[in-house]
Design brief:
metal-binding; two-stranded antiparallel ribbon; dioxygenase; transmembrane helix; 8 strands; LipOase_C
Length: 546
């Protein structure tokens, strides 16, 4: 590949930022795990609401919270203008090396970061020549994976590739295939963007009347969609029957490009940022197929079809590059890490370690918060929500700057309350915290170890530059580390009722749900689809770990 051909979408700042944010949450990645209640030689305090604790236990709780608040404080980052833990990376690292709760996770993950950095440096030193063939991207991919698989630091079970353990299509060989391109919309690194195209009577998806405003009127969209469906169903009927889908990246509309200050090659040319529009349709076999790609959202933009040879492959790469940025900057970084950081920091400074998980499951919450009045009187819960919510009161209020409820809150008012008043609200809040720190994060994180490390499938730039190795490092760093399994800690809980509830949840997920999902993935594999094992419960962690 010639030196001047280049797709530069992510930028060095993205890699640096993502690696930086990795450190901010790894000490609290086991947010939902529980420490042993009490200390040797001290008063044994039961797990209960603060208003129901004895005077001695209240004093112990407040003493621990004072210590925790002295460690975990939020401050506005001068770089991102959002609240982050007010420590440097070195300060945070030193703290976690001494913290019995975080030490094992931190040390093993830090060793992996050092290992991937070493692999990147070695590869660059051994390959000074420019990449000239797609095969070379496959070679570096295999070199990195082989080295990671042989890594002998800590427990080898920590470092695993999902695609090595589950039925998985050979995407290194078939990455050009249109079926893979379509399947990646829901089975790849970003299952969050694909939308159904609907008519004006629908309240979901993207209305055709709105989408049409961005589409090139000179292109025959009806014929392209019918070709993808493999029939002559009228466009209006196809939309009505939910056959038409679209990728639309509004955040990229009119996005400015910037010079790559890290690139010293004068012959390189920047590919300007685009906001592609990709249409898909469901064929008679109920399989999603690509119909056409418009390179930018403006109506005069060029449109490419599946039969257009190399231009079609290039158009798919534009979509993949854009999808990669949205996945990792918006869905991964912004909507999980940057939301989790103030949540975890505020919670750590508001609730004692011995009660941190015990009030976290809905059934347990119902046991502790028997009435709405119990919620109002829980000063630790109130302090947590007050610091997290932008709708705050008092000196520490609003430090987390979270403005809206997360996902499932049932009421019409979308503001995150600073003073929760209802049992139902606590249950919904905890459900959301568990969801986005475990399941949602897994969906946008672990596929990176498979798809995000292979440049032709997930392009950032096409040159021999240090960012090729950097892409591998980022993908391996975020997509291969598996520290634990959701709800696997039930034996560590001292409360017998809580332990039983968590055990039942763990066994239901791993012996009922997991079997169903595995059987479904085996059927998909036999039919030639991409499988999606990333949300099989045995791959789900207890929190954000990378």
């Amino acid at each position: 590949m010639r030196c001047e051909v280049k797709i530069w979408i992510l930028g060095s700042f993205y890699f640096a930022t993502l690696l930086l944010l990795v450190f901010f949450t790894l000490g609290e990645s086991n947010f939902l795990r529980v420490k042993q209640a009490g200390r040797k030689g001290n008063t044994k305090c039961s797990v209960d609401l603060p208003q129901k604790s004895t005077k001695k236990c209240k004093n112990l709780r407040e003493r621990e919270l004072t210590r925790q608040r002295g460690i975990y404080q939020l401050a506005i980052s001068p770089y991102l203008q959002i609240p982050l833990v007010n420590m440097t990376i070195n300060q945070l690292a030193e703290h976690h090396k001494k913290d019995e709760f975080a030490k094992e996770h931190f040390v093993n993950y830090y060793r992996m970061l050092l290992k991937t950095r070493e692999l990147g440096k070695d590869w660059i030193a051994q390959h000074p020549e420019e990449i000239t063939d797609f095969q070379e991207y496959e070679n570096i991919f295999k070199e990195f994976r082989s080295s990671m698989e042989n890594m002998a630091t800590g427990n080898p079970d920590f470092y695993r590739f999902v695609s090595n353990s589950e039925p998985f299509r050979d995407y290194l060989k078939d990455w050009r295939d249109d079926g893979i391109f379509a399947d990646l919309r829901l089975s790849g690194i970003n299952p969050m963007v694909l939308r159904r195209v609907t008519d004006d009577s629908s309240g979901v998806g993207l209305k055709w009347s709105e989408l049409k405003k961005t589409l090139n009127p000179q292109y025959n969209w009806k014929a392209a969609i019918q070709a993808a469906m493999g029939n002559n169903v009228p466009l209006k009927k196809a939309i009505k029957k939910d056959y038409v889908y679209v990728l639309r990246y509004e955040v990229f509309d009119d996005m400015s490009s910037f010079p790559d200050k890290a690139d010293n090659c004068a012959s390189h040319h920047m590919w300007p940022a685009k906001s592609p529009v990709a249409l898909f349709a469901v064929n008679k076999n109920r399989r999603l197929r690509p119909a056409a790609i418009q390179i930018d959202y403006k109506p005069d933009s060029h449109v490419v079809s599946p039969g257009d040879g190399d231009s079609w492959m290039f158009a798919k790469m534009v979509v993949q590059a854009t999808d990669y940025v949205i996945s990792q900057m918006i869905e991964h970084l912004l909507k999980t890490h940057l939301l989790a950081e103030p949540s975890v920091s505020s919670y750590t400074g508001s609730c004692p370690s011995s009660t941190r998980y015990m009030r976290s499951l809905s059934t347990i919450a119902e046991g502790y918060y028997r009435r709405d009045l119990d919620v109002k009187k829980d000063n630790e819960l109130q302090a947590f929500m007050n610091e997290l919510s932008v709708n705050r009161t008092g000196p520490d209020g609003g430090n987390g700057q979270v403005n809206t409820r997360f996902i499932f809150y049932p009421h019409e008012d979308t503001r995150l309350p600073s003073q929760p008043e209802h049992q139902e609200g606590v249950i919904n809040l905890v459900t959301q915290l568990i969801w986005f720190m475990s399941v949602k994060h897994a969906a946008v994180d672990f596929p990176m170890g498979d798809y995000g490390a292979f440049t032709p499938l997930t392009p950032t730039r096409f040159t021999h530059e240090t960012t090729i190795a950097a892409q591998m490092q980022v993908a391996m760093n975020v997509g291969t580390y598996h520290y634990d399994t959701l709800f696997d800690y039930y034996k560590q809980l001292s409360h017998p009722y809580a332990s039983q509830l968590v055990r039942l949840s763990y066994h239901y997920l791993n012996f009922v749900v997991n079997r169903k999902l595995k059987a479904r993935n085996k059927r998909r594999f036999k039919k030639g689809y991409l499988t999606y094992p990333y949300l099989e419960p045995h791959w789900l962690p207890n929190g954000i770990q990378t």
